[in-house]
Amino acid sequence: MTRLWNDPADFADEMIDGFVAANGRYVRRVTGGVVRSTVSPAGQVAVVVGGGSGHYPAFGGLVGPGLAHGAAMGNLFASPSTQQVYAVAKASDNGGGVFFSYGNYAGDVLNFDAAQERLRAEGIACETVTVTDDIFSASTVEKHKRRGIAGDLTVFRVAAAAAEAGADLAEVTRLARLANERTRSFGVAFTGCTLPGAAQPLFSVPEGRMAVGLGIHGEPGIDETDIPTADGLAELLVDKLLQELPDGVDNPEGARVVPILNGLGSLKYEEMFVVYRRIAQLLEAAGIELVDPHVGEYCTSFDMAGTSLTLFWLTDELAALWETPVDTPAYRRGAVAPQERAMDAAPGTPAEADAVPAADDDSRRLAVRVAAAVETIAATVDAHVDELGRIDAIAGDGDHGIGMQRGSHAARDAARTARDAGAGAQTVLARAADAWSDRAGGTSGALWGVILQALAARLGDTGSPDATAIAAGVSAASAGVMAYGKAEPGDKTLVDALVPFASTLSAQVDAGASLIDAWIVAADAATRAADATADLLPRMGRARSHGQNSVGTPDPGAISLALIVTAVGEQLAAEKETVR
Ligand code: ADP
Ligand code: MG
């Protein structure tokens, strides 16, 4: 139960403000999160971590010498946007490239990958290792699909120690990958967590029971049992983790292991020490040499009561890196030499915020219609916000309506500003796309950013595109969404509405239909396809884990997409009427 907040919508921002005010010795605020307030050597690889807020000390609490250079900090339990990740990485870069690491969650992967692509396009070298330590989130065959929990710490530390020692980006990446390979975690939970202002916990565990393998955002576990004794829990945790030794470890006997017993938010340290006592006995009995044991909070899940055990299986190389001293707000190891403070730079603002690229009159006229279309999108979302939230609550987390509202309102405002500044059609829509994904949060926000960016690229800031170019833009949007989100038709996502929309639009235009006529037929196809998602089982996104619940209910992202393309089609038709 969270008791203290002002406006719940401001909670994450105000939390970051207070965190920075209390830790100026280590961090300074930048757009999208925090970076070190101390100077890093020129050419040093910058280690950038991040994720949703609500996991303190992950991620901002782990920024400082010996650990991360920057942390992108999203809203509560929501991935940081592409712009946030990009801005934090830019502010962290020391000229040696950027190394990204974060827990493996779909929304984070989308946004970090998009930021990485943008940085690479600017000539900044980037590499990524996502953390996949939770053994209960997927089988060994699908190890790459596992989510990241407290094992974040080992991967971040190894990457940062390598960077500190002067390793280049490729070497940092190799070592981080090795650390991830040799890190395994497993957790249990006794209660769910309640986000600020929420009336209900995000999920719940029955009184007296323990969820086994439960994820840090309530993703279902594999089992539920009565709460065991402290020793019983230690036995369960050790047993499961010794059943899955990492590649390269044939026998626990003689291995060196860093054990991390992590509290998820409201478990007492004293309880954890009682459990750890038995864990240490069991690991030693298995012939394991324990190195630098950790008992405490390293990755929490708001006020969830629960704990996880991580075993980090050292090699000589990893053991040497583990000696690197660290000094961050929430995590200290050894003694770090005094650090030079960075000059207080103003928080970054997007450089191109005001100036707009040159445009011709044709494109400016089109820009007015584009901005009007974005207004229509926002109005359509407003009219259906409750319904979209309700559909998302059935199998997802209920935030689709408000996420789409935040995104489309920000897009509408950005489009207006760019239009008033005399921007062409491409710039107006591109600014709307950025604002949308930046403000929306969630998976759909990132994907709407991709959709509008792909479309914007075909509009240009000069001249005016024909129907074929627009249809090609919609096809590019559809391909882009599939490339980023990795969902395919039939997975019960917005792809199920977007693909038929794009293909019908192209087919109609190719057959000689006008853009308006083609759009209306395509919007109809999207609506039918969105309705038909009711029969599907979700295979992607958050809804994947609650599959069965959603049969009979359509996918919220597909429905909102169909509503939007329908409304835009009606607007195109109305514009034609007025022109005539
Ligand atoms: P979140 O899932 O982060 O809470 P939203 O609730 O705003 O985000 O959006 C949920 C919608 O996002 C789903 O209904 C689905 O249409 C879409 N979605 C989720 N994952 C994917 C994906 N990998 N590819 C395409 N669409 C996806
Ligand atoms: Mg949702």
From TrEMBL:
InterPro entries: DhaK_dom, DhaL_dom, DhaL_dom_sf, Dihydroxyacetone_Kinase. One of its GO terms (molecular function) is ATP binding. Residues 368-570 form the DhaL domain. The keyword Transferase applies. One of its GO terms (cellular component) is cytosol. Residues 339-358 are annotated as: Disordered. Residues 7-331 form the DhaK domain. SUPFAM superfamilies: DAK1/DegV-like (SSF82549), DhaL-like (SSF101473). Keywords: ATP-binding, Kinase, Nucleotide-binding, Transferase. It comes from Microbacterium hominis. This is Dihydroxyacetone kinase family protein. GO terms for biological process: glycerol catabolic process; phosphate-containing compound metabolic process. Gene3D superfamilies: 1.25.40.340, Dihydroxyacetone kinase, domain 1, Dihydroxyacetone kinase, domain 2. It comes from the Bacteria.
